[in-house]
Amino acid sequence: MAPEIPGSEPASGTPSPAGGTALLRVALALFFVGLLAIVAIFVVHATDHTPGLALYLVAMACPIGFLLGIVSALRAGRRVRGEE
Prior knowledge:
Oligomer: single chain
Helix content: over 70%
Largest sheet: none
């Protein structure tokens, strides 16, 4: 049997960590979509064309995903601290 780590079992009254995991997955997806849009903007500029407004708007997903990732980390830390 694996050794038990104190505090590793979620209490019955606390929310499951699946909500935090889902928020982190959304944050990562938004961040990488925005990052791809930023790379696409550079590629379009390199070919002497002007990127469209839609590409700039999609690039805004990068900082939004970054902020959601921070929120997810803070919520996960607060959840662990609350269990002690």
